[in-house]
Amino acid sequence: MKELSDFEHKGWIKFKFDQRVAHWANAANSKITSKLKNKEIFDNNLTCQGTWFVGVDALENDTNGALGEISLSGPFESLMKRTEARGLHAAQVSIIFEGYPKPRDQESESSFNYRLKRDAAHVDGLIADFPGGPRKLKEPHAYVLGIPLNQAPKGASPVVVWEGSHHLISKAFNSLFLNQDPEKWKDLDVREVYMQTRKSIFEKCKRRVLYANLGESYMIHRLCLHGISPWDFEIKNFNEGRKIAYFRPELQHLADWPKLS
Prior knowledge:
By secondary structure, the protein is α+β, with helices and mostly antiparallel strands. It has a single domain, classed as Jelly Rolls (Sandwich), CATH 2.60.120.
């Protein structure tokens, strides 16, 4: 299957327009727009001085991704099924507004510069409880599925990926976890290995902008370094913000996490 081959080689794949995806996205956009009329919900999810609505677990879908009678279906289904993952969580709805990024509350200058100049590039699931603290594999995701919920301009903070970076992450973490009991992986501080590998990725891997229209979608390998690009200052008055729903279900088997397949 060519799409599987491309995905495993590059670490990402973008799917063409599909009416089923557009139908689901329009329904999701309607639901999140209605939900955000609640000022408390909206304000509690805002960060980066009002330029990013984080929106974790913001969408009330079922474990198959359905919104009521509207099922989540599309060209990504075959890749979703090839990985043994748990049921889908309530989707994150990430909304970026004009001016992103601005510093988060108590964000250090170095952290903000990384957000600004390196797109806050990260591998999902490797989490530090506080800045500069130990970083651990707390959320072993199966993949990242992104679905735009509205038609946004190309420069409205699209996602970026470092193509092929999952190969370097896999090699580094397979080496780190070698002869370690998978049950203990979540207790290991991976910060040093992660930062060294990330630096190597910036030197060796091509940064790709992953812009998608309404009705399109994309999947990112769980080990692929990715982030959010700054808002193009030439884009003005797009007040609704660019909206993307993300699914990151966790793997059923932790030992699969550092694998490329």
